[in-house]
C-alpha cells in the first residue's frame, strides 16, 4: 500500500464546465483514474464559491451541475471518490484553521490571485477570500495528496500548499507531501476572444461542454481573425488562439498546414472554423449523451456524492486526529 499516491482536485461551483476545464483538468483526472497506483479524490469546491459574491439560491444546484459534468466526462465513482467539499466542511475547515497558524497575513495579501479578486470585488475583501489558499491547501493536505490536476493559474496556490506542508512538517513533525501540479497537454486553453484564457466569467470566451454543433459554430464564428495572410504567423491574439485550438482538437499536423497557408495562399477562416467546430463536437458528443442519461437519475448522483463523502471522510478524519495530536491538542496530564 505504501506506494499508492493520492490525487485530489477540485473546481469551484460557479457554473458548468467548459472546454478549458475539460482539457485543463478533467482529462488529467481521467488519465490518473485508470492508473492503479493512484487513489483519486475529486471534489466540487462549493465552500470556495462562497469567498466571492454568489447566489445562495443556486449554489447547491450549480454544485450538482458540476458533478454531472464530471461524471459525464468519464469520472467513474468506483475508481474515484466524487464529493462536495461542503459535505466535509467540518473537517476541511478545521484543518484550514490549523494550517492558518503557519501562514502570515502578508503572504496571502501578496498573492496575485488575491490581488485580482480585490480588484474585481473591492467591496468584498473578506476573511474568507484571504483564507482561500489556506482552505485549498487543507483540501489537498487532508488527503496527503501528492498530485493535483488543475489549471496552470492555480500554481501560486500550490506553492502556498507546499510551503504550508513544509512548515507543518518542520514545526510539528507531520508527514504532508509537498503537492505538485499534474499538468496536461491542453492545460492552457485560449479564449475565443483575442486575449487571455477560456473562462466562464468572460462572455464570448468559451465553449461549453453541452454546446451543440450549431452553437459551437456560432461561438467560433464570433472569434476574431485577420485577413488570413501575412509574413509571419501571429503568436498572440485571436488567430494564434484559433491555431492552438486546432492543435488541441485536430493535431499538430493540421496546425502546421494552416501555418503554411498563412504565409502562402492564405487561410480561409470559414473553413478552418467549420472543421474545428466539427472536431470539437466529435469530442463532446459522447459526453453530452452520457449527461442526458445521468440527468434522468438524480438519486444515483446523490448516492455517488454520499459514497464519495464517506470514503473521503475516513481519510480526512485520520489526518485531523494526527494533526491535533502533533499540534498539542491531545494528550492530557
Ligand atoms: N482554486 C481552484 C480553482 O479555482 C479550486 C480548488 C479548490 C482546488 N480546492 C482545490 C483545486 C484543491 C485543486 C485542489 O480552480
From TrEMBL:
Catalytic function, reaction form:
tRNA(Trp) + L-tryptophan + ATP = L-tryptophyl-tRNA(Trp) + AMP + diphosphate + H(+)
A cellular-component GO term for this protein? cytosol
A Gene Ontology biological process in which this protein takes part is: tryptophanyl-tRNA aminoacylation
Which EC number applies? Answer: 6.1.1.2
Which Gene3D superfamilies does the annotation name? HUPs, Tyrosyl-Transfer RNA Synthetase
Asked if the record carries the keyword NAD, the reply is: no
Q: Name one GO molecular function term.
A: ATP binding
Segments forming a coiled coil: none
| A Pfam entry, by short name | tRNA-synt_1b
**Assigned keywords, A-Z:** Aminoacyl-tRNA synthetase, ATP-binding, Ligase, Nucleotide-binding, Protein biosynthesis
What family does this belong to?
Answer: Belongs to the class-I aminoacyl-tRNA synthetase family.
The molecule here is called Tryptophan--tRNA ligase
Q: Which organism is it from?
A: Candidatus Beckwithbacteria bacterium GW2011_GWB1_47_15
Amino acid at each position: 500500500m505504501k506506494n499508492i499516491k493520492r490525487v485530489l482536485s477540485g473546481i469551484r461551483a460557479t457554473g458548468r464546465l467548459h472546454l478549458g476545464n475539460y482539457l485543463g483538468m478533467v482529462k488529467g483526472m481521467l488519465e490518473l483514474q485508470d492508473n492503479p497506483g493512484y487513489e483519486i479524490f475529486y471534489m466540487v469546491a462549493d465552500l470556495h464559491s462562497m469567498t466571492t459574491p454568489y447566489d445562495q439560491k443556486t449554489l447547491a444546484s450549480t454544485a450538482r451541475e458540476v458533478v454531472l459534468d464530471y461524471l459525464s466526462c468519464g469520472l467513474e465513482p468506483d475508481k474515484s471518490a466524487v464529493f462536495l467539499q461542503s459535505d466535509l466542511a467540518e473537517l476541511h475547515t478545521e484543518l484550514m484553521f490549523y494550517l492558518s497558524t503557519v501562514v502570515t497575513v502578508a503572504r496571502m495579501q501578496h498573492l496575485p490571485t488575491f490581488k485580482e479578486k480585490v480588484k474585481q470585488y473591492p467591496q468584498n475583501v473578506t476573511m474568507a477570500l484571504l483564507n482561500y489558499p489556506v482552505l485549498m491547501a487543507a483540501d489537498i493536505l487532508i488527503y496527503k495528496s501528492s498530485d493535483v490536476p488543475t489549471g496552470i493559474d492555480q500554481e501560486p496556490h500550490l506553492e502556498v500548499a507546499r510551503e504550508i506542508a513544509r512548515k507543518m512538517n518542520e514545526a510539528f513533525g507531520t508527514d504532508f507531501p509537498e503537492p505538485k501540479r499534474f499538468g496536461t497537454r491542453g492545460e492552457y486553453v485560449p479564449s475565443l476572444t483575442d486575449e487571455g484564457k477560456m473562462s466562464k466569467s468572460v462572455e464570448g470566451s468559451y465553449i461549453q461542454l453541452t454546446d451543440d454543433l450549431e452553437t459551437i459554430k456560432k461561438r467560433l464564428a464570433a472569434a476574431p481573425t485577420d485577413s488570413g495572410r501575412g509574413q509571419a504567423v501571429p503568436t498572440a491574439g485571436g488567430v494564434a488562439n484559433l491555431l492552438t485550438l486546432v492543435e488541441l482538437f485536430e493535431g499538430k499536423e493540421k496546425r502546421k498546414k494552416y501555418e503554411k497557408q498563412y504565409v502562402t495562399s492564405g487561410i480561409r477562416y470559414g473553413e478552418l472554423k467549420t472543421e474545428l467546430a466539427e472536431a470539437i463536437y466529435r469530442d463532446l458528443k459522447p459526453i453530452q449523451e452520457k449527461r442526458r442519461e445521468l440527468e434522468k437519475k438524480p438519486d444515483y448522483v446523490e448516492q455517488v456524492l454520499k459514497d464519495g463523502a464517506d470514503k473521503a471522510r475516513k481519510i480526512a478524519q485520520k489526518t485531523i486526529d494526527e494533526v491535533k495530536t502533533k499540534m498539542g491538542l491531545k494528550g492530557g496530564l
